[in-house]
Structures are given as structure tokens and as C-alpha cells.
Design goal:
- This is Methyl-accepting chemotaxis protein.
- Residues 200-253 form the HAMP domain.
- The chain is an all-alpha fold.
- It has helices at residues 5-72, 77-96, 102-127, 132-219, 233-324, 329-388, 393-450, 455-525.
- Helix content is 91%, strand content 0%.
- The chain starts with a helix and ends in a 5-residue tail after the last helix.
């Protein structure tokens, strides 16, 4: 079963704790036994040995005093009895101690009691200076030997028990040291082995993963192999980093392809913007020329209006002359000749005006085509901006404004076309009327020159000519107003086209900024090695 990282990290303290508990258990167990042996020595064996040795020494002193009493005839019975009492008390105390052979001590007490009974007789004989004191002392030797041997045996037994207790304590102490040393060595070996195992299972994989992550962060190297064989958290981390590297490997390629596509789109957009800027510049120049042409048309229309007024004045004069009678026929004929010449000039001017109106219609057609092309270019720019996504939103706004301007230009062109159509119709009517009037004036002149009787008809023709002149004046005035309105429209269209040119220039700058951003993205996409 594979261990998790937390379990692996707990192995070392758990093993150390187990060995520590074992060392403590061995130390406590053997220490308890050692302390028990020490207590036995200190509280039982050592006092019993001391008491036995004291009793032995006291008995030897007592026997020596008994011998001295016989030999020196100096009996100190109270001293001897005090010694006997002390020995009896000591034997009783020895009998009550632990680790003492009670039966042997009781036998020793009986032997000592027998000894003292005989020794008392010897002391009594010595106090009486009896000759039998020496004989009684000699008979006391077996009892002395029995007590002495008994004390020696008890002392030897207690001393042997004490030595055994010391030996056991030393053995327990050595065993404790041996077990502690063995467990310590085993603990150190196990901890060293576990340390090497943790180093191989945890520390080295983490160090390799750290180095891999560092190289990815520092060098962008995504080609490094990763060991994912571990089944713990380190293995999961390694597999996660490997998955991250796989995903990161796809990012530079995707980013590079996207940047390439965006660069190509930006280049196309830049080219289209540049072409549109040139086209709009040409369109603005054409509108300027159209404005100049319309100004010339307006000037010509003004001249036609002034001449129409002159015709109206002449017609009034002719009407006055016709009313003056036959006397002024020749003068009227001359006036009619002048009228015919001026009407001819008027017809020529009106014809020239008609030609100018036709040219204006052609210019309006060019403007309409230009507006259509601007609309198409704006539509293409909007499509390219939509493909560019978030970066092309600003250019999409510009394209929308361009389409709106193109629509306004188209509407203005249609209005101008209608106005020019009305002007052309008025001019054609004027030309038709002028030609009819001219023909009638020719007939009138011929009739005036042929006969004075046709004065009435000439007067009527003059009146009709005067009416036609009024119509010409009205038509020319209307034409002049239409041309003025067309001039204003063309001027407004020229200003709007200037705004469109400026917006297109801003869009071209935005495309340049997009190219700069794409260059940075290109550098970022090439900073990874896959």
C-alpha cells in the first residue's frame, strides 16, 4: 500500500517515539528491579550484616570479658549483663529483619542463652575465687564455639546475600546499559535509514519539482521530463505540474497562430485603411473641385438671372414702344433685333448652363459612386473590426461613422440629383421657350419690316415675349436658389468628408497601436520552449 506524504512524514517521529518508549520501558523496568535490589541492600541486607557483625563483635567481647574475669579475678557483672542484654536485643533485632534465616537466628538465640547460663556460672565461680572457675571456663568452650560459629554463619550468610544483591544490581545495571545502548544504536540506524528513505521519497522529488518550476518560471522551458511515479501528494503535485506543462505547451502555439492571424488581419486592415484614406482624400479633393464647379455654375446662373432681367426690361420697353404706334416701328424693329440677339445670347447661356448642369449631374454620379464605395469600404472595415474582436472595437466605431457619413453623402447626392434634374427640366423648358420666342421674334421682325399692319400682332408677340421673359426670370431665379442650396450641401459634404478623413487617420493610428501590441504578444509567444 502506497503511503501518503503525511504518513511518510509521520514515520520518522513514530519510529523515534517507539524506540524512545522502548528505551524508557527498559530503563524503567530494569531500573525498578535495580532500585528493588538497592532497597533490599540498603534497608535489609546491609543492616542485617551490620547487626550480625556487631553481635559477633559483642559476643567476642563478652567471651573475652568472661575469660578476663576468670583470669584476673576482676568480675564486673553489671557490665557483663549489660553486654548480654545488648546482645540479646541485637539478636532479637536481627531475627526481625528481612532476608534473615529466622530459624538459624532462633537457634543462635537458644545457643546464646545456654552459653550465658554456663558463663554466668563461670563468672559466679570467678567472683568466688573458686578453683573450679577455670574448669568451668574450659567447659564453656563448646557453647562459645556453637554461638561463635552460629554468628559467623549468620554473618557469612547475610554477607553472601548482600554480595549476591550487589552482583544482581550490577548485572541489572549492565543489562540496562546494554539494552539502552542497543536500542539507541537501533534507533539511530532506523532514523538514519528513514532519513535516507524520506530524502529519496520526499525531499529529492520536491527538489526536482522545485528546480523544474524554477526553470519554467525563469527560462520558460516546457520540455523538461517529470517523474510522476510517486503515489503520494508529491506524485499528485508532479502530475499536476505535468498537466500544467502540457497545457502551457499548447498556449505558445495557439498564441503564435492567433498573433499571426491578427498580424495578417491588422496588415490587411492597415492596407485597407491606407487605401480608404487615399480614396477619401481623392474624394475630398473631388468634392472640392465639385464645390468650385458649382460655384462657377452659381456665377453663371447669376449672369443668366441678370440677363433675364434685362430681357424683361427690354420686353417692357418693347411693350411701351408697341403702344406708341406706327411712328416707332423702325425703332421697335431695331429693339426686336436687339432682343433677338440678346435672346440668342440667353439661349447660348442657357445651353452652356445646361451643359454645366449635365457636368454637375456627372459629378453627382461620381459622388454617389464614391459614397457607395465608402459604404462598401466601411462595411468591410466593420467586418475586419469584428474579426479583430476587442482590439478592433474602436475601429468598428469609426467604420460605423463612415457608413453613416456615406449614407448622408448618398442622401445629399440624391437630393442634389433631384435638384439638378429640376434645373435641367427648367433649363430645357427655358431653352424651348427661348427657341420658340426667338422664332416668333423672327417672324415678328419680318412682319414689322414687311408691313405696319402687323403691329398689333407684333405687340401681342412682344407681350408673349415679355411673359416668357418673366418665366425665364422665374426659372433662372429658381435655378439660382437650387444651385445655392446645392453649394451648401456640397460644402457640408466636404466638411463631413474631412471629418471622415480625420477619423480614418485615427483608425490608422489605432491599427498601428494594434500592431505594436501584436509585436509584444509575438515576443511573449516565443519566450517559451516547447
Amino acid at each position: 500500500m502506497a503511503l501518503r506524504l503525511k504518513q511518510k512524514m509521520m514515520v520518522l517521529p513514530v519510529v523515534a517515539s517507539v524506540f524512545l518508549v522502548a528505551i524508557v520501558a527498559v530503563t524503567v523496568g530494569l531500573g525498578t528491579r535495580t532500585r528493588s535490589a538497592s532497597d533490599r541492600i540498603g534497608f535489609s541486607l546491609a543492616p542485617s550484616v551490620s547487626q550480625a557483625q556487631t553481635a559477633r563483635a559483642g559476643f567476642a567481647a563478652l567471651h573475652q570479658d568472661v575469660g578476663d574475669a576468670v583470669a584476673l579475678h576482676a568480675v564486673q557483672r553489671q557490665t557483663l549483663e549489660a553486654q548480654v542484654t545488648e546482645l540479646t536485643t541485637g539478636l532479637k533485632a536481627l531475627r526481625g529483619m528481612k532476608d534473615v534465616d529466622v530459624a538459624r537466628v532462633e537457634a543462635l538465640q537458644e545457643a546464646f542463652t545456654g552459653y550465658w547460663q554456663e558463663a554466668s556460672k563461670v563468672v559466679s565461680l570467678a567472683a568466688q575465687n573458686s578453683a573450679g572457675a577455670d574448669e568451668a571456663l574450659a567447659k564453656l568452650a563448646p557453647a562459645h564455639k556453637t554461638v561463635h560459629d552460629g554468628l559467623e554463619a549468620v554473618t557469612a550468610q547475610q554477607e553472601a546475600a548482600q554480595r549476591e544483591a550487589f552482583t544482581e544490581m550490577e548485572s541489572l545495571h549492565g543489562t540496562t546499559l546494554t539494552w539502552v545502548l542497543l536500542l539507541s544504536v537501533a534507533c539511530i540506524a532506523a532514523l538514519a535509514a528513514l532519513t535516507v528513505w524520506l530524502l529519496r521519497e520526499v525531499t529529492l522529488p520536491l527538489a526536482r519539482l522545485t528546480e523544474t518550476a524554477t526553470r519554467i518560471a525563469r527560462d520558460g522551458d516546457l520540455t523538461q521530463p517529470i517523474d510522476t511515479s510517486a503515489q503520494d501528494e508529491v506524485g499528485e503535485l508532479a502530475r499536476s505540474i505535468e498537466t500544467l506543462m502540457k497545457r502551457l505547451r499548447s498556449v505558445p502555439g495557439t498564441l503564435h497562430s492567433v498573433v499571426t492571424e491578427l498580424t495578417a488581419a491588422a496588415a490587411r486592415l492597415n492596407t485597407a485603411s491606407h487605401e480608404q484614406l487615399n480614396f477619401l482624400t481623392n474624394q475630398s479633393r473631388s468634392l472640392t473641385e465639385a464645390s468650385s464647379t458649382i460655384a462657377e455654375i452659381a456665377q453663371t446662373s447669376g449672369m443668366a438671372a441678370s440677363r433675364a432681367e434685362m430681357v424683361l426690361k427690354v420686353a417692357a420697353q418693347a411693350d411701351a414702344f408697341s403702344s406708341s404706334g406706327q411712328v416707332s416701328i423702325e425703332r421697335s424693329a431695331e429693339g426686336l433685333q436687339q432682343i433677338r440677339q440678346r435672346v440668342g445670347a440667353l439661349v447660348g447661356s442657357i445651353g452652356h448652363l445646361s451643359e454645366q448642369a449635365v457636368h454637375a449631374g456627372e459629378i453627382i454620379g461620381s459622388v454617389k459612386d464614391l459614397a457607395d464605395q465608402s459604404n462598401v469600404l466601411a462595411l468591410n472595415a466593420a467586418i475586419e473590426a469584428a474579426r479583430a474582436g476587442e482590439e478592433g472595437r474602436g475601429f468598428a466605431v469609426v467604420a460605423k461613422e463612415m457608413r453613416a457619413l456615406s449614407g448622408q453623402s448618398l442622401q445629399s447626392t440624391q437630393r442634389i440629383g433631384k435638384i439638378l434634374l429640376e434645373i435641367n427640366q427648367a433649363i430645357r423648358q427655358t431653352v424651348s421657350i427661348a427657341e420658340g420666342d426667338s422664332q416668333k421674334m423672327e417672324e415678328g421682325i419680318e412682319q414689322v419690316l414687311a408691313s405696319a399692319t402687323t403691329l398689333k400682332d407684333i405687340t401681342q408677340v412682344v407681350q408673349e415675349s415679355s411673359q416668357a421673359a418673366r418665366q425665364i426670370v422665374a426659372s433662372v431665379t429658381q435655378q439660382n436658389a437650387g444651385i445655392t442650396q446645392m453649394t451648401e450641401v456640397v460644402t457640408q459634404l466636404s466638411e463631413m468628408m474631412s471629418d471622415v478623413v480625420m477619423a480614418t487617420s485615427n483608425a490608422e493610428e489605432a491599427v498601428g497601436q494594434i500592431n505594436t501590441s501584436l509585436g509584444k504578444l509575438q515576443e511573449l509567444s516565443t519566450s517559451f520552449r516547447v
